[in-house]
Amino acid sequence: MMGPAVYILSTLSCMLVSVLLLRGYLASRLRLLFWSMLCFGILAAANCLLVLDFLIFPKVDLSLHRSVITLVALVVLLYGLIFESE
What we know:
- There is one protein chain.
- By secondary structure, this protein is mostly helical.
- It has three helices and no strands.
- Helices cover 86% and strands 0% of the residues.
- Helix 1 runs antiparallel to helix 2 (31-56) and helix 2 runs antiparallel to helix 3 (63-83).
């Protein structure tokens, strides 16, 4: 009962954080904000896939796809932290 609400709220919070980071990036043009925004946007996609996996298509296993998308998000953030921080 509580699981679907947590999945949906985590998706919405990642989307909100991504939008707020985009607004911050557009105001200041700090590249680290851009990479953080991109990471949270990709994490929102992974959370959306989580909602699809558990709520919409419960018989289909999308865990590998979710893990790959999450790994891509973390690599994007790691790239931004290593190469773009000043």
